[in-house]
Amino acid sequence: MRSETPKVLHPVCGRPMLGHVLAAGRELAPELLIVVIGHARRQVADYLRRHEPDATVVVQHRQGGTGHAVRMVFEQLAVPPGTVIVTYADTPLLRGATLRGLAAAHERAGAAVTALTARVADPSGYGRILRDTAGSFAGIVEEADATAAQREISEINTGMYAADSGLLADAVKRLSSGNAKGEEYLTDIVAILRGDGHVVATAECADPAEVLGVNDQVQLARARYELNGRLLRGFMLAGATVTDPASTWIDVGVVLAPGARVEPATQLEGQTTVAAGATVGPGCLLRDTTVGEGARVVHSVCESAVIGAGAVVGPFAHLAGTFVADGATLAAGSRSRREGLVQ
Question: Which of 78, 132, 261, 325 could in theory staple to 241 by disulfide, Cβ–Cβ 3.0 to 4.6 A?
Answer without folding.
Answer: 261
